[in-house]
Specification:
Helices cover about 30% and strands about 25% of the residues. The protein has about 300 residues and is of the alpha+beta class. It folds into two domains: about 110 residues, D-amino Acid Aminotransferase, Chain A, domain 1; about 160 residues, D-amino Acid Aminotransferase, subunit A, domain 2 (D-amino Acid Aminotransferase, Chain A, domain 2, Alpha-Beta Barrel). A hairpin with a 2-residue loop joins strand 14 and strand 15. The radius of gyration is 19 Å and the shape is globular. The protein starts with 12 loop residues before the first strand and ends with a helix. It binds pyridoxal-5'-phosphate.
């Protein structure tokens, strides 16, 4: 939710390298290359009724991101997983959001990663509300950002890195236009995704989403939605999409671990046939069922 007031983080709990630290006292060195250069990787995930949704998938993606930037995980997977469970137990929340961060660690000034000895692991559990409830019932407004997605040749989108400036520039454009979110195109003019969510459209009862090779993150919620659609008998197609395909679509929605499923009412001022469409609604129901199956 966009707000200029400083959040109080009352419900936040935090572990740094496995150690519990009160959220208001938690800090990292100004020499951590995660801060200095965005040199690190992260994951955002949710827990429902204290059960962590798709934990294995998120850990696998984090490890893959870390491997891709030659950043060794400072502890083994079992230890890492245990810390996450400890944090969820410490959290006063039954349902909440987790942020897992692995930075390159403290080093000398200068970007050379060899300057850093050991990575730092930061884990935060708190609430996360990306959109006001009314937006979820009415659908949000999107714009197409003029900022293009960093090409996949420059940065593999499978690396979920701490450097989100490309996405933030798009979000700034959305704010400037008084829209709720922005979508980014790649240099060929194909739609990639929103600033922190994957995107889907529905046309003639078929579900479409761009391939990750066009520059989108391999979203875990995206995969869940594709699987749920197949199980519901909704035809799915993953292929490149131009913005024009969206202008004639019946429905559109965004997906993400933080976002869950967000309905979209318009793109660049052009309204979709339905703001909260029937296929979106079926998928949302199935998604909630999937969560409850994981939360017993
Ligand atoms: C750029 C971007 N795309 C898509 C997503 C959605 O991915 P997931 O469903 O794995 O959370 C995110 C989530 O953080 C993201 O940052």
């Amino acid at each position: 939710m966009s707000s200029a007031t400083e959040p109080d983080h009352q419900t936040a709990r935090c572990l740094i390298n496995g150690e519990f630290i009160a959220a208001q006292d938690a800090s990292i060195s100004i020499f951590d290359h995660g801060l200095l250069y965005g040199d690190g990787v992260f994951e955002g995930l949710r827990f429902y009724n204290k059960n962590i949704f798709k934990l294995d998938e998120h850990i696998t993606r984090l490890c893959r991101s870390a491997d891709a930037i030659s950043l060794p995980m400072p502890v083994d997977k079992n230890q890492f997983t245990q810390w996450i469970h400890n944090l969820v137990e410490l959290s006063p929340l039954k349902d909440g959001y987790l942020r897992l961060i692995l930075t390159r660690g403290v080093g000398a000034l200068g970007i050379d990663p060899r300057n850093c000895q050991t990575g730092n692991i930061i884990m935060i559990a708190d609430t996360l509300s990306l959109m006001e409830p009314t937006k979820l019932s009415e659908g949000i407004q999107l714009i197409t950002a003029t900022t293009r997605r960093i090409s996949i040749e420059a940065l593999d989108p499978r690396i979920k890195s701490l450097n989100y400036l490309n996405n933030i520039l798009a979000k700034l454009e959305a704010n400037q236009a008084q829209a709720d979110e922005a979508i980014l195109l790649n240099s060929q003019g194909h739609v990639c995704e929103a600033s922190a969510e994957n995107i889907f459209l529905v046309k003639d009862k078929t579900l479409y989403t761009p391939p990750c090779s066009d520059g989108a993150l391999e979203g875990i919620t995206r995969s869940v939605v594709l699987e749920l659609a197949s199980a519901l008998g909704i035809p799915t197609t993953v292929h490149s999409l131009k913005p024009e395909s969206f202008y004639h679509a019946d429905e559109c929605f965004l997906t993400g671990s933080g976002a869950e499923l967000i309905p979209v009412r318009s793109l660049d001022g052009i309204a979709f046939q339905t703001s909260v469409g029937p296929i979106y609604s079926r998928l949302l129901l199935a998604f909630k069922k999937e969560i409850s199956l994981n939360s017993d």
